[in-house]
Amino acid sequence: MARMRLRFNPWPHPAIELTDAPNPKCPDCDGEGEWTEDFADADGEYGGSEYWHCMCWDPGRARRLLPIPRWIAHRLFGWTPPIYSTEPPF
Ligand SMILES: [Zn+2]
Fold this sequence. Notes:
mainly beta; 2 domains; 3-stranded antiparallel sheet; two-stranded antiparallel ribbon; binds zinc ion
């Protein structure tokens, strides 16, 4: 069952989107939606962390609802425009 929530997404343009949320009662992730597992390299030292998404939600499931003007995104969400353009031609 989808648990929808509103979220601010700054890319590619500031907007409010409706997105899925992790199950707060999920026994696998305790409502976090993901967890990390550390792994060792061949010498037994810390080799990094691997992120695992829980099956209780789909982080890519989102629908953009409302574009937000830049000054509102800056004032409400602390968003700052990129120094360089992210749109072609670069
Ligand atoms: Zn979960």
